[in-house]
Specification:
The chain is an alpha/beta fold and 332 residues long. It has one domain: Alpha-Beta Barrel (TIM Barrel). The protein is 42% helix and 15% strand. The protein has 11 helices and 9 strands. The chain has helices at residues 22-39, 60-69, 88-101, 118-125, 134-145, 174-182, 197-207, 231-249, 269-278, 287-301, 315-329; strands at 8-12, 43-46, 75-82, 106-111, 166-170, 186-188, 219-227, 282-285, 305-309. An 8-stranded parallel beta barrel has the order 1-2-3-4-5-6-7-9, surrounded by 7 helices.
């Protein structure tokens, strides 16, 4: 096991590769979680997305239980649960159940976006879809995790009185400011929102108010990473993810496609600019190159932890990329 200079975690969307199935994607995720545990990764989080043929983690709490049952030590959690899609009581009960089954290993990361298109969001939420009531829903959820008061009629069972760490997730400054004001840990989605990265991290770090949960800020940064023996191979592996975002901006959905040698044959110049701008928060190259990129990123952002998304088509190459990333982090 390699010891990294900064804690590393994994964000997994349970990608469904071309001509595969969600069942195989879930099995791949379990194999990756076991691999991550052996390598010394801190956490393994899965994200809630809906109506996407290339992502198998829609029933996020169920997936977390499957992964936790198949591992022993690594923390398993959500990156995240989109709270406005659910009743706070249901989430308290679900994560109270998970914490009861796998004590000391469950994280609850919360977001306020739908995790899907607006038509699907309306089917999920059956009401307002703007997420503006997220702070109130968060207060309600935290109340269910607290020790019940005498005579309290509504209690989360399991859930009440359990220590389930809550993280706020965000791709802008909204959740950064909310996490800072409440003294909660914060994770920023730099893997697809690089433009707001520095503003969100500063908003969280500069405005943090110590709480019973945290004495000082705890900021985790989401990034993409593709690490291989050579820089050329790393860029080749990254082309699968680039194709996914290219299809997204074209309004198309699909499974994770095999890498290609030449993305210029697939996109127009304006599409290339949009995809590469969106994915600017990416570590890519051989171990030495990625170690330097990582050092620069940590110095610039002050992040306490990195959570890494590596949607690589070939599962062996994906495992190898995470191994090389851990070794790159040990060089810092």
């Amino acid at each position: 096991m390699t010891t990294p200079a900064v804690p590393l975690s994994i964000l997994d969307l349970c990608p469904v590769t071309l001509n595969s199935t969600p069942a195989q994607a879930l099995r791949n995720s379990l194999q990756l979680a076991r691999h991550a545990e052996q390598l010394g990764y801190q956490r393994f989080w899965v994200a809630e997305h809906h109506n996407m043929t290339g992502i198998a983690s829609a029933a996020t709490s169920v997936v977390i239980s499957y992964l936790a049952a198949g591992t022993e030590r690594i923390r398993i959690g959500s990156g995240g649960i989109m709270l406005p899609n659910h009743s706070p009581l249901q989430i308290a009960e679900q994560f109270g159940t998970l914490e009861s089954l796998y004590p000391g290993r469950i994280d609850l990361g919360l977001g306020r976006a739908p995790g899907t298109d607006m038509a699907t969001a309306r089917a999920l939420r059956r009401g307002r879809t703007d997420g503006e009531d997220f702070p109130q829903m968060l207060d309600e959820l935290r109340h269910y995790f607290a020790e019940p008061e005498p005579g309290q009629r509504l209690v989360a069972v399991p859930g009440a009185g359990l220590d389930v760490p809550i993280w706020l997730l965000g791709s802008s400054t909204f959740s950064a400011q909310l996490a800072a004001s409440l003294g909660l840990p914060f994770a920023f989605a730099g893997q697809f929102s690089p433009d707001y990265l520095m503003a969100a991290m500063r908003a969280y770090q500069d405005n943090f108010v110590p709480s019973a949960t945290l004495e000082k800020p705890q900021a985790m940064l989401g990034i993409n990473a593709f690490v291989a023996e050579t820089r050329d191979e790393a860029h080749y592996l990254a082309s699968s993810h680039q194709q996914s975002f290219l299809n997204m901006i074209r309004g198309e959905r699909g499974q994770l496609r095999p890498p290609v040698e030449d993305m210029d044959a697939l996109w127009q110049p304006h599409e290339r600019h949009q995809v590469l701008s969106t994915l600017a928060g990416t570590l890519i190259g051989d171990e030495q190159t990625v170690a330097q990129q990582m050092a620069d990123l940590l110095e610039r952002t002050g992040a306490n932890e990195l959570i890494v998304n590596s949607p690589i088509y070939d599962q062996d190459k994906r495992h190898d990329s995470y191994r090389r990333l851990m070794e790159a982090a040990a060089r810092l």
